[in-house]
Amino acid sequence: MLAALLAAPIPAPSNPLAHWQLAAGYLVFGISYLVFAVGKFPGLKIDRPGMAIIGAVLMVAFGVVSAGDALHFIDFATLVLLFSMMLVVGCLRIAGFFDWITDHLVARLTPGNLLPATILITGVLAAFFVNDIICLVMVPFALTASRRLGLKPLPYLLAVATASNIGSVATITGNPQNMLIGSYSGLSYRTFLGHLGPVALFGLVLDWLVIRWLCGPAQAGRKDNDAAGLGHPGEDEAGLGRSTIQLRALRKPAIVIVLVLAGFLGGVPPAMVAALGAALMLITRTREPRQVYDEVDWGLLVFFVGLFMIVGGAERAGLNYDLSEIAARLNLQNPGILTGIAALFSNIVSNVPAVMLLKSLIPAFHHPRTGWLVLAMASTLAGNLTITGSVANLIVVERARDEVHIGFWDYSRVGIPVTLLTLAVGWAWLLWVR
After folding, report:
1. What is the pLDDT of residues 364-408, one digit of tens each?
2. What angle do CA 211, 400, 141 make, to 5 degrees?
């Protein structure tokens, strides 16, 4: 039964709809995507997950999607993978895994290597875990390390935001849109990593060069030691309090993570591997389950469920046909054009809704594998364009708000060149390896 749920989604039956139902389906789809674009419904406190719920309910209420067929539109493999990775990473956070990394690195870094270290660590962690969650743990690292070294934190916070997006492009588990593409495309974890891993690596190098060039060398951003808060009483030379982290508590999570990554690389379906890893993490005698459940972004899961039904209803109303005509006129099979369109849509309506909108077009391409990889690359790297381009950026801004204000231009002066350069490199690389 579980294997059936983790398989590819079953196509819904195409029962004919009345004209008013077709119009209702397009109207609900249009209003929903408008809210996804602006972030909330004008004049009301309706956010993206709320609109996804409302849109899904309206699709059923208008008969565009029947209650019996609603499950056919939901891709359970994506939901299981996303939920399981949240549980796995949540258990790692509670066990102190990321604090342990921070403690060991902060005491060993110098002003000259803090920027490349921040970019590399963030990028690697984001590649194998969900990038949004990695931002939650890397913002304290950037603030602590820059404070102890007497440096202005802004360049390192920008590094966390941009590197988390760039690193996450490498794998299926890097971000939610990649999970969606991995499920629909059928691409293996190794294929994904083999094609997009180099894009992430080149992108991280470009990220380092751009931030270093625009923000200057590390010493140029140095604060006064007293203002930086160096030498706070009670802080040992190890950093954030290494003694509070029990290495024995990290043993089981470390073993589970190694097994999960081995399963990914070994070709086992990612959703199944992640689900088994989450189940193993939940077997414990010391940790309350509620602690782990609090680490799950339930709003994101709800958003996915509603989005599946909204797009599924619009497809029943004829969206696929209309999009295919537009795709033919724009020649979306061209990797360069697809890169531009995916990047544009990702910044207008956010990357997950953009991928949901474009996913039905890729299977008809002459080179569908290239199309899926280009869509993953462009929708992810486009998130670095502006401060609102991805959830990861917003997480960094919010987490650092009490200590550092990151304005729109503070971010954009780095995000725009990083995005344009990485998109160009990603497009050229995928065109070459095709």
Report:
1. 898 999 999 999 999 999 999 988 888 888 889 888 888 888 888
2. 70
